[in-house]
Amino acid sequence: MGIKIQTIKDIRFYLSRELHDTFPEQEIRAVTNIIIRSILEITRPYKTYLTDEPVDSVQASRIINITAELKSGKPIQYILGETFFYGCKFKLNGSTLIPRPETEELVDLIIRENSGYQGNIIDFGTGSGCIAVSIASNLPGSLVTATDISREALLIASENAKLNNVKVSFVEDDILNPDAGKFEKTGIIVSNPPYVRESEKQLMNKNVLDFEPHRALFVTDYDPLLYYKGILRKGSEILESPGKIYFEINESLGNLMAQLLESYGISDIHVIKDINGKDRIIKGILHAR
Predict the structure, then answer these.
(1) Count of alpha carbons within 13 angstroms of residue 208, beta-carbon side
(2) What is the pTM of this model?
(3) What number of other Cβ atoms are within 10 A of residue 275's Cβ?
């Protein structure tokens, strides 16, 4: 017997029934809240939703279509074409990674440690622009520049800056073939570059492998720090002294990353664990040379 979707209560029941063979219960609840927030355009906290709030026929049809796509494994963020990150709304497509909670931790650290900062910040490999836009929104005195090799990603990132009413300068640039002449001296460098080794693909969820851009995720096993080396080569020319570096990293490569930063004259190096207790962020300072 079919379910007629007329209220929020019906949405929850329908998604719970339809997705119970596809996702664990906790993920179904999270996906359901995202769908309700997006399709019904509700901005209030989840706990204030009323179960009898009405759903019209167009919204109900959209929810049924979304459910079919979810069963194929397609991430909800790509289905909706948007996600929320550090209090900001971001458009997404297949050329940009879905922002992760671990990256929110990186952004939060930068914002907390640099309150009132008014200098230049460069985000290398910006993707959707989630790091650059969130920092620009929360450090309004800063001048943020974001780079990416993907023109399609830069178009989305530019839209996201406009969507969140912040100013970010976008530059098409290849981390592996750096052009330091494109950039002014900067006090902060941040990046979440590709860091998942090819051998780690087998550990990843199928929906990530099937739908997210591999170029933004994976790096070879024989040179897993390839992108960090490119950024540091460029950074050694454009980073002020003292200047700060923040990276999101592979949880298994914290020690190697610390050694790499030291080899470029970076000191005050700290490897920071994420909420799951995994080495996820490394930071350091380049002092006067």
Answers:
(1) 16
(2) 0.89
(3) 10
Would you call the peptide bond into 242 cis, given omega within 30 degrees of 0 as the criterion? yes
Cα distances from 63 to residues 69, 205, 265, in angstroms, run: 10, 24, 53
* Angle, vertex CA 197, rays to CA 212 and CA 106, nearest 5: 70
Q: Is 181 exposed, middle or buried (0-12, 13-18, 19+ CB in 10 A)?
A: exposed
Rounded CA separation 201/271 (Å)? 24
Rounding to the nearest 10 degrees, give the CA dihedral for residues 201, 203, 209, 214.
-40
User: pLDDT tens for residues 94-127?
Assistant: 889 999 889 999 999 999 999 999 999 999 999 9
d(Cα 282, Cα 284) in Å, to the nearest integer?
7
Domain residue spans of the chain: 8-72, 93-286
What are the pLDDT digits (tens) for 41-54?
A: 876 655 556 678 88
**For the chain, how long is the longest CA-to-CA vector?**
73
Q: Which CATH class is domain 93-286?
A: alpha beta
The residue assigned the tokens 């997705």 is 19
Q: Whole-angstrom distance between the N-terminal and C-terminal Cα of the chain?
A: 73
